[in-house]
């Protein structure tokens, strides 16, 4: 089995594979660098390309939003750290920012293959736009794949992180098109009346036994 075949089978719930890489911030041991943080690990087709330039610029400008949620950012494209550093100057100039997270140098595509970021039918060298969201236990919680020609929506990435953190901390899921402050859905696994009272002091609406809506927990208690 090739690396590629193996790694295209990465799934939600798998531990994110560890690696050592040269980056624009120096040598990085991935699991050690993750520590207890969440992480958005995203790939770019190629250095010195327009859509990627806008994405890295936007992600840099949104860094404080990710930090607020205890999320680290790290990006990869198949290219050298020297090229990434040169390109960073253009990103800073044109996107009015200063790239503030590591870009992984992956000249031979080894890490891209480890994560199944190269889809040979799209392009046999360059990565597609993948996003892996990794939680503090280093498990993959979300995988998203976009074509090279479509820039990603970083507001959606923040939204899904909010949703997953609400699930972890408050036993709720989030309905279609949920946004911060909207009602949430009580996890079907929570059925005990005392637990329901304790977890949802503001009450809930039962529309069906399996469809119970509650005000978003924690709203108004943000730091
Ligand atoms: C871009 O980042 O602009 C891009 C890269 C590959 C194909 C199309 C667009």
Describe the structure.
The protein folds into two domains: 14-152, Glutaredoxin, CATH 3.40.30.10; 170-214, Antioxidant, Horf6, Chain A, domain 2. It is elongated. The chain has eight helices and eleven strands. By secondary structure, the chain is α+β, with helices and mostly antiparallel strands. The site of benzoic acid (BEZ) has 8 residues, from helix 3. Benzoic acid binds at residues 45-46, 49-52, 148-149. One of its GO terms (cellular component) is cytosol. The active site is at residue 52.
Question: What attributes does this structure have?
Answer:
223 residues; Glutaredoxin; Antioxidant, Horf6, Chain A, domain 2; binds benzoic acid
SS class:
alpha+beta
Q: What is the total tally of β strands?
A: 11
Give the amount of beta strand, in percent.
Answer: 15-25%
The total tally of domains equals 2
Q: Can you tell me the CATH architecture of the largest domain?
A: 3-Layer(aba) Sandwich
Number of separate helices: 8
Which molecules other than protein and nucleic acid are bound?
benzoic acid
CATH class of the largest domain: Alpha Beta
Radius of gyration: 19 Å
- Spans where pLDDT lies below 50 across 5 or more residues: 1-8
Write out the strand line-up for the largest beta sheet, numbering strands in chain order. Answer: 5-4-3-6-7
Shape from CA axes?
A: elongated
Mind telling me the CATH superfamily name of the largest domain? Glutaredoxin
Largest sheet: 5 strands, mixed
> Which range best describes the helical content: under 10%, 10-25%, 25-40%, 40-55%, 55-70% or over 70%?
25-40%
CATH domain topology of the largest domain: Glutaredoxin
What multimeric state do the chains show?
A: single chain
How far do the termini sit from each other? Answer: 49 Å
Question: Element order, helices and strands?
Answer: HEEHEHHEHEHEEHEEHEE
Instruction: Let me know the average pLDDT.
Output: 94
Domain Thioredoxin: 10-166
Function: Thiol-specific peroxidase that catalyzes the reduction of hydrogen peroxide and organic hydroperoxides to water and alcohols, respectively. Plays a role in cell protection against oxidative stress by detoxifying peroxides.
Organism: Candidatus Protochlamydia naegleriophila
InterPro entries: AhpC/TSA, Peroxiredoxin, Peroxiredoxin_AhpC-typ, Peroxiredoxin_C, PRX_1cys, Thioredoxin-like_sf, Thioredoxin_domain
């Amino acid at each position: 089995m090739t690396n590629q075949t193996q790694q295209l089978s990465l799934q939600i719930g798998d531990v994110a594979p560890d690696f050592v890489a040269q980056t624009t911030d120096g040598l990085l041991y991935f699991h050690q660098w993750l520590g207890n943080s969440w992480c958005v690990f995203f790939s770019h087709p190629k250095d010195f390309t327009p859509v990627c330039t806008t994405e890295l610029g936007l992600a840099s400008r949104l860094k404080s939003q990710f930090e607020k949620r205890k999320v680290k950012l790290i990006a990869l494209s198949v290219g050298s750290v020297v090229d990434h550093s040169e390109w960073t100057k253009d990103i800073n100039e044109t996107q009015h920012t200063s790239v503030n997270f590591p870009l992984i140098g992956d000249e031979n595509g080894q890490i891209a293959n480890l994560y199944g970021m190269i889809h040979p039918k799209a392009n046999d060298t360059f990565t597609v736009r993948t996003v892996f969201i990794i939680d503090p236990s280093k498990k993959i919680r979300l995988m998203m794949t976009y074509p090279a020609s479509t820039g990603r929506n970083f507001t959606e990435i923040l939204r899904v992180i909010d949703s997953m953190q609400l699930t972890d901390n408050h036993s709720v899921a989030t309905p279609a098109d949920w946004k911060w402050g909207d009602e949430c859905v009580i996890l079907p696994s929570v059925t005990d009346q005392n637990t329901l009272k304790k977890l949802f002091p503001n009450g809930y609406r039962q529309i069906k036994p399996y469809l119970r809506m509650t005000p978003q927990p924690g709203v108004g208690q943000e730091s």
